[in-house]
Amino acid sequence: MTLAHPLRLDGFHITLVETASGLRPGGNPVDVRGPAAQVARRLEILPALKAAATRATTFAFVDKRCRIVTERRGFSNTGSDDIEIPRGDLARVLREPL
To answer: What pTM does this model have?
Structure first.
């Protein structure tokens, strides 16, 4: 789907074929930073990625009884182009303009 964007912007008509009945929601978060953020900016999807980004700033590690063992501070999605976005939301953003 990422390749479809620049092709579409260059005037190509794109047809994507998927074996699943629709986009699959969920999945592990994906970090979009550095070169990936530059690509997102060129594809003009960076604002949509930021809007769908996770808002987690702290991560808690718990034991088998769900007691917090330690906490670590993560990165914030505000004020930079470093984004953490759920995989399903990334797929949705990439597909929307097609």
So the answer is: 0.68
Query: What is the bridge-based pairing of β-strands 29-32 and 83-86?
Result: antiparallel
Q: What is the mean pLDDT of the chain?
A: 84
For the chain, domain boundaries? 4-95
Instruction: Characterize 37-66 residue by residue with b for buried, 16 or more Cβ atoms within 10 angstroms of its Cβ, and e for exposed.
Output: beebeebebbebbbebbeeeeeeeeeeeee
* Cα–Cα dist 36/42, whole Å: 10
What is the pLDDT at residue 32? 92
**97 confidence band (pLDDT: 50, 70, 90):** low
